[in-house]
Each structure stands twice: as C-alpha cells, then as structure tokens.
C-alpha cells in the first residue's frame, strides 16, 4: 500500500523548543493508526503538524500530494472555545467550507447533508443549540459530525474518546470503523489501551520520539510502555533546542 504520510526526520515544537524529535516513518494509505504516549509525549503536537497548523522546526511531513482540505482534524475538546456563540448546525456546517467556501452560502442540498451528519451522530433536535450548552459527549458527537461532513481522505482525531460515556464511545468508534472500511487513513491519539488493542491494528508509541511503531501487539508491550513513561519523565522542557534545529532568531 502506498504511503499517505511520510515523516522525514521531522522535529516539531514551540518557540524553538522541540516537542517531537526526529520522527521518521510512514503511514500507509488506508491505515488505522493509534498514537499512544504519556501526557506531554507530543501526540497533539504531531497531529497539529500533520494538520498543517504547526510548521516543522526541521525535517518535513510529506502528505503524498494531499491538499490541506483533504485532511479532517478533530482537536481536543479543550481546544474549542465553547463560549463562542455558534449553533450546532453552523459548527457542523463549517465541515463543508472546502466545497462551499467561507461565504458560499448553504444550498438546500448542503443543508440536507449537514442535517444527515448531525443525525448520524445522534444529535437530532440539537441543531439550534449553542455549542456552549452541550455536554462533553454531545460536544464530541458534534465534532465527529463535522469530520463526517468533510469527507476527507486523511482523518486525524486528537483524544476523541476522552471523558465520554461508553455508549458515546461505542457509537463514535463505529464511525471510525466505517471510515477505515471506506479506505480513509485514520490517526487517533488515545489513552485507553484496551480500546486500542481491540480496534486499532497499528500503533505508534510516542515519547517525544518514537519508542515503538508497528503492529499494536508488538508495539504495546509492558517494556515499551515503561520506556515511554521514563523517557517522558526524564524530558526537560526547558532544555535548549536540538543542535540541528536551525535558529529562527533574526
Ligand atoms: N502551544 C504550546 N506552546 C508551548 N508548548 C506547548 C504548546 N502545546 C504543547 N506544548 C508542549 O509540548 C509538549 C508536548 O505536548 P503535547 O500536547 O503535544 O503532548 P500530548 O502527548 O498531546 O499530551 P496529552 O496526552 O497531555 O494531551 C509538552 O511539553 C507541552 O507542554
């Protein structure tokens, strides 16, 4: 299977401080990959890099010719400004911007698609609710509806099942399974190892750099998990930038 993503010695970080170091490797087109790691391991940073929100400090992320609009990115719910006065309908509708444009207006057909996506995640009747009134699980369903609408070839989900009930997890996991069956490439940052073992064939165990990457059974050994934890504990956030990260100072 051709590669959908190639990480070429990529280093990502903030203010010249690397958070993910020298990552090399490929994600095959159509892969269903879990990204696991302790808090602060760099999972969100890596996903921001793939989504094009964060430019690499060095190295490159090759997306096999994919346009940025072909990537659907589901951020952590903590990154969503819930006080922003927008309805569920309008939030989900933003998933269509790639076809309608920002000010393109919503046709009758587009409206149907938006309502179908909201229904598919079990949020019928919530269309006019301000997003700030949603529960954690409803919020997550809404984020999935937007991804559904984006119809993207590459889907990047940052902790999509955190702090939600078992029924919501199961419903949303079924959507992930559907995307995988449709041949889309799906990456998800997760914390629940049982869920990963049961549903994700491939895993990248990350601790600022890769600890293991391959079949889930081979990557998620107790030894590897311990190494990842120790690597994250030992990491000094205030350390200077890597020697081979060029300075951006003027
Ligand atoms: N916007 C930011 N500015 C500066 N440093 C950041 C920023 N976001 C993350 N970091 C730092 O980058 C490192 C990696 O964080 P990241 O959020 O990518 O880890 P994570 O694996 O997603 O963690 P978690 O499981 O807790 O969400 C951490 O040391 C974090 O403090």
Q: What does the model show?
A:
By secondary structure, this protein is α/β, with parallel strands linked by helices. It has a domain at 1-66 and 196-244: Rossmann fold (3-Layer(aba) Sandwich). 34% of the residues lie in helices and 24% in strands. It has helices spanning 43-50, 88-93, 97-100, 108-120, 136-150, 166-181, 193-199, 216-219, 222-234; strands at residues 3-14, 17-28, 32-36, 58-62, 71-74, 154-158, 185-189, 202-207, 209-215. Strands 5-6-7-3-8-9 form a six-stranded mixed sheet, with helices on both faces. The model is unreliable at 243-250 (pLDDT under 50). Bound molecules: adenosine-5'-triphosphate. Residues 14, 19, 37, 39-45, 237 line the site of adenosine-5'-triphosphate (ATP). Involved in beta-(1-->2)glucan export. Transmembrane domains (TMD) form a pore in the inner membrane and the ATP-binding domain (NBD) is responsible for energy generation.
Shape: globular
Give the beta-strand count: 9
Counting H and I runs of at least 4 residues, what is the number of helices? 9
CATH superfamily of the domain at 1-66 and 196-244: P-loop containing nucleotide triphosphate hydrolases
Q: What string gives the helices and strands in order? A: EEEHEEHHHHEHEHEEHH
CATH topology of the domain at 1-66 and 196-244: Rossmann fold
- Secondary-structure arrangement, i.e. CATH architecture of the domain at 1-66 and 196-244: 3-Layer(aba) Sandwich
Q: Assess the beta-strand content as a share of residues.
A: 15-25%
The CATH class name of the domain at 1-66 and 196-244 reads: Alpha Beta
Report mean pLDDT, rounded to a whole number.
90
Q: Which distinct ligands sit in these coordinates?
A: adenosine-5'-triphosphate
Gyration radius from CA atoms, angstroms: 19 Å
Structural class: alpha/beta
What's the main sheet like?
6 strands, mixed
The portion of residues assigned to helices is 25-40%
Read across the widest sheet, the strand sequence of neighbours is 5-6-7-3-8-9
């Amino acid at each position: 299977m051709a590669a959908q993503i190639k990480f070429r010695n990529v280093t990502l970080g903030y203010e010249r401080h690397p958070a993910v170091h020298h990552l090399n490797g490929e994600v095959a087109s159509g892969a269903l990959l879990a990204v696991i790691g302790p808090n602060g391991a760099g999972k969100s940073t890596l996903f921001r890099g793939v989504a094009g929100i964060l430019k690499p400090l060095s190295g490159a992320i090759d997306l096999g010719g994919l346009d940025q609009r072909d990537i659907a990115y589901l951020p952590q719910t903590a990154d969503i400004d819930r006080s922003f006065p927008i309805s569920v309908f309008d939030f989900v509708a933003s998933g269509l911007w790639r076809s309608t444009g920002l000010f393109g207006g919503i046709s009758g057909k587009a409206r149907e698609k938006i309502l179908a996506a909201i229904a598919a995640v079990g949020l019928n009747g919530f269309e006019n609710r301000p997003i700030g009134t949603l529960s954690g699980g409803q919020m997550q369903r809404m984020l999935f509806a937007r991804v559904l609408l984006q119809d993207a070839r590459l889907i990047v989900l940052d902790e999509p099942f955190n702090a939600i009930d078992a029924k919501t997890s199961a419903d949303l996991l079924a959507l992930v399974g559907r995307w995988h069956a449709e041949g889309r490439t799906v990456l998800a940052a997760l914390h629940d190892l049982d869920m990963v073992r049961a549903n994700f064939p491939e895993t990248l165990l990350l601790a600022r750099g890769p600890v293991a990457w391959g079949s889930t059974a081979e990557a998620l050994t107790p030894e590897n998990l311990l190494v990842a934890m120790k690597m994250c504990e030992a990491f000094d956030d205030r350390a200077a930038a890597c020697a081979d990260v060029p300075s951006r100072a003027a």
